Amino acid sequence: MQPLVVDLGDRAYPIHVGSDLIGRSDLYAPHLAGLQVLVVTDATVADLHLDRVRRALGNREVASVVLAGGEADKTLDAVSRIVDVLVERRFNRSAAVVALGGGVVGDVAGFAAAVYQRGIRYIQVPTTLLAQVDSSVGGKTGVNHPRGKNLVGAFHQPVCVIADTGALATLSERELRAGLAEVIKYGVLWDAEFFDWIEANLDGLLARDEGLLARSVRRSCEIKAEVVSQDEREAGVRARLNLGHTFGHAIEAGMEYGHWLHGEAVAAGTCMAADLAARMNWISAADADRVQGLIRRAGLPDRGPAALSPDDFLRLMARDKKAVDGGIRLVLPRAIGDTVLTGDFDPRALAGTLEACRADIEPPFFD
Length: 367
Ligand code: GLY
Prior knowledge:
Blueprint: E1 4-6, E2 13-18, H1 25-28, E3 36-42, H2 43-56, E4 61-67, H3 76-88, E5 96-101, H4 103-115, E6 121-126, H5 129-135, E7 140-145, E8 148-155, E9 160-164, H6 173-189, H7 192-206, H8 210-230, H9 245-254, H10 262-279, H11 285-297, E10 304-305, H12 310-317, E11 330-335, E12 338-342, H13 347-356, E13 358-359
Parallel strand pairs: 2-9, 3-4, 3-5, 5-6, 6-9, 10-13
Antiparallel strand pairs: 1-2, 7-8, 11-12
Bound molecules: glycine.
Residues 134, 138, 140, 238, 241-242 line the site of glycine (GLY).
């Protein structure tokens, strides 16, 4: 199948989506300028896929770094461990990094590639649904700060994305559902027909029908590629991709990184955004119910944790990168399939949402 393309002029790159792609040397070779390659991965993914990547890289000089994985490892310390290996192995500016794993591996490895010798190339090989539909595309790299999510980072586009949908067969149930949160997010923020399609096919997606998963990855990546091609640095339309993220990042930081998965926090945040939009009559109560109902059917949380008070939420949300001069800005739906980034919302309605959309819940959120 033809790859999708993120159209950024002379930095345009392909996104390959399909089965059995991880071991295809022909997908890596055109994007490697030199013979030195560092594969960054985590222990679980290394056991499953590292040998195939090594074989695909042929007789190049291949080193690897195995991170602990998980949001708690998304730190400057992890970046430093990668850079240490690049320096020890005397990798030069024609070297490449391959980020093999989920969103944390991709963000950390991408950031190491962005800063090593002022930037070397990297290939994203996402192995989780969340990384395949979102974080591997678009060049956002970076790490968390104890006080806020993704506060340290750089825009650095990969030279290629290889999304092997066969890798999703071994994903944990919790990771699969967390990835579906980002898929649902695309339907709500951009494409009402895609939202309908997810509603109709959710059972098959949860049953890991590979054809359906591949369609969901491809459509999500099409949307992401279109948005990033228009607005690489998030000066405008790209902010819409952050639907649910201001609430979600507050949950992730407030509950200590890794306790809630990113996708779980985005699911709750998307429901909170729908609740707020419904309170202001921007969307109908019926549409808010549809969004929240689909998220519940996916076994994802439809509200935030009671452990965070409304004041906790406001304090954490004010640290969001979209905030301007301390004023919170939110991505809110105007309809299913249409969203807007705005600071112009009713603060009393937000207070109502923060009070109502909290519950005594703990991950995992499904039986
Ligand atoms: N995950 C949102 C973005 O890449 O812009």
